[in-house]
């Protein structure tokens, strides 16, 4: 190999390791955020229990067992999406690290296709977005259990739900736009 080919090969390796580092860092961030959201799932479950009186003070505004049931369903589905997202991200990280490890035999080296990497990262991002949506739905039920039913017109509950939906929807729009931009450029 002459000197110009050697420089090109070294440049390609450096660029590949830099790109790999960026992918691993992005996947690490996704797993960390999913972990925080998973904690929120369990906090939501611990705060609200069926048959609990709301802070509204009127028994007509107390949530029934159906709200508690929906809370549990949404929490489990949310947890499932966060777990899916984290496991896909961890699998991709493992494949990337095996692919770029110099200390491993060729028989154990991972061969990851760039298209598979992109699809895996997209699946992980979609899992996080879906987990967030179901987490918002479960938090709406927590709010109804603690502050009173929305149908009852409980002002604190309506304000809390409005703030939650507005802020999370805005954050998800920014996240989705950023992911879309990253995948198209």
TrEMBL record:
<feature type="transmembrane region" description="Helical">
    <location>
        <begin position="67"/>
        <end position="89"/>
    </location>
</feature>
<keyword id="KW-0472">Membrane</keyword>
<feature type="transmembrane region" description="Helical">
    <location>
        <begin position="21"/>
        <end position="47"/>
    </location>
</feature>
<protein>
    <submittedName>
        <fullName>Maternal effect embryoarrest 60</fullName>
    </submittedName>
</protein>
<feature type="transmembrane region" description="Helical">
    <location>
        <begin position="119"/>
        <end position="140"/>
    </location>
</feature>
<feature type="transmembrane region" description="Helical">
    <location>
        <begin position="160"/>
        <end position="183"/>
    </location>
</feature>
<keyword id="KW-1133">Transmembrane helix</keyword>
<keyword id="KW-0812">Transmembrane</keyword>
